[in-house]
C-alpha cells in the first residue's frame, strides 16, 4: 500500500473507499489520518443533507 508508506514521511494519509469494518480497523492500525466510504454512510442528495444539518 503505497499510501501507507507515505505516512512515514510526514504526509497526511486520507483513504477513500472504506466499505467494511475490517478495512476501517486495518487503516486505524496503520495510523491513517482520515477516511471516507460506504462504511460511514451512503451519498445523499443536497435536499436530504440540509435536513440532517
TrEMBL record:
Residue stretches making up the EAL domain: 1-53
Q: Which InterPro entries match?
A: Cyclic-di-GMP_PDE-like, EAL_dom, EAL_sf
Xref: PANTHER family: CYCLIC DI-GMP PHOSPHODIESTERASE PDEF, SIGNALING PROTEIN YKOW
- What's this protein's name? EAL domain-containing protein
The protein's organism comes out as Candidatus Nitrotoga arctica
